[in-house]
Design a protein that fits this description.
The chain contains three helices and four strands. It is an alpha+beta fold. It has a domain of about 55 residues. It has a two-stranded antiparallel sheet. The radius of gyration is 25 Å and the shape is elongated. The termini are far apart.
Length: about 90
């Protein structure tokens, strides 16, 4: 606010138009590797449920990209699994 000629005036700022802001999108690699924990968060399930699904053969395809490394799931595999009528 500024004082001008005995009165108080407000400084006008340019308001942001709702459609003018750029959408915030997460940049995702076309086929990124996800950990089991990341998949569980996306599916809103527990780790134990994911392991049970693997035992029953209904979980999304997963592999170990390195010999003794952690289990990983490609995003495309998860999307295919979901499109095919996941559980």
């Amino acid at each position: 606010m500024t004082a001008a000629a005995g009165g108080i005036t407000t400084r006008r700022t340019r308001s942001r138009q709702p459609g003018s802001s750029r959408p915030r999108r997460r940049t995702v690699a076309p086929d990124e590797w996800l950990t089991v924990d990341e998949v569980c968060v996306e599916l809103n399930i527990g780790r134990r449920t994911f392991e049970r699904w693997r035992t029953l053969g209904i979980a999304p395809r997963a592999t170990r990209p390195t010999r003794n490394g952690p289990l990983r799931i490609k995003r495309s595999w998860l999307e295919e699994w979901a499109e095919d009528g996941a559980t």
